[in-house]
Amino acid sequence: MTPGRYVDGIRLETARRRLEDTEAGIEEIARTCGFGTPESMRRAFVRALAVSPTEYRRRFRTHPTGAN
After folding, report:
1. Are 57 and 65 in contact (CB under 8 A)?
2. Which of 2, 11, 14, 16 is the least crowded, having the fewest Cβ atoms under 10 Å away?
3. pLDDT in tens, 11-55
4. 33, 40 in Cβ contact below 8 A?
């Protein structure tokens, strides 16, 4: 595995966790996980998981919005 692919994998895994476990917005997650833009993160999700970040969150969210 190349260093670039390793970094991409870590970014994707971190973004996945944040989508599942936080209320943070897509733009904030993209920026803090190193994607730079929401579009870059969307492309990475579609390439690796065949789903957009928004759809990923909808499917795998641990704590739905408004739940305590």
Report:
1. no
2. 2
3. 999 999 999 999 999 999 999 999 999 999 999 999 999 999 999
4. no
Distance CA 37, CA 31 (A): 6
Contact by Cβ (8 Å): 44, 12:
yes
Q: What is the DSSP letter of 68?
A: -
Q: Which domains does the chain have, with CATH numbers?
A: 3-60 (1.10.10.60)
**What pTM did the predictor assign?**
0.86
For 5-51, give the DSSP string. Answer: HHHHHHHHHHHHHHHHH----HHHHHHHTT-SSHHHHHHHHHHHHSS
From the list 33, 32, 34, 53, the residue with the least C-alpha distance to 42 is 53
